[in-house]
Design a protein that fits this description.
Blueprint (H helix, E strand, L loop, with lengths): L1 H10 L12 E5 L5 H13 L6 E6 L2 E7 L31 E4 L8 E4 L19 E2 L2
Parallel strand pairs: 1-2, 1-5
Antiparallel strand pairs: 2-3, 4-5, 4-6
Length: about 140
């Protein structure tokens, strides 16, 4: 089921950006829990109206731009009454979240968001290829 949903998410990307601002990078694995990915994307876009799109990478390969508006079809209404605890994370289930990385060069605005991170193999900044991205504190 998650693979089908991930492919649906990937189908909603565009190869060319239709936005005027910058788009941060989200790096995901194809086996990522799509429900968790959607939760993080909703949180990301909800934090700022200026965030219009992301650049989506899956398994290290560029997929395309994912505009905020293309997520609307995935987001349904939620019931805030009895039995909402049915969506609680069960013991032993992964509770992934996005980790924000930033370039260490002062003034560089490049950011990247990842759900899986090997701290011994951090990605390099595309703007400053000699600089290793750092976890934003």
């Amino acid at each position: 089921m998650a693979k089908i949903m991930m492919s649906k998410l990937m189908e909603n990307t565009l190869q060319k950006s239709t936005i005027h601002g910058k788009a941060d990078i989200f790096m995901l694995h194809s086996h990522a829990d799509v429900d968790v990915v959607m939760k993080e994307l909703i949180k990301y876009f909800g934090e700022s109206d200026e965030r219009e799109a992301i650049r989506l990478y899956v398994d290290g390969k560029y997929v395309g731009f994912l505009p905020r508006i293309n997520l609307y079809g995935f987001v349904g209404t939620t019931y805030k009454g009895v039995d909402t605890s049915g969506y609680a994370v069960l013991p032993g289930s992964p509770n992934f979240h996005c980790i924000e990385l930033q370039c260490p060069v002062g003034g560089c605005q490049f950011k990247m968001f990842v759900m899986h991170l090997d701290e011994d193999d951090l990605p390099m900044c595309p703007v400053h290829p000699d600089q290793t991205m750092e976890i934003k504190k």
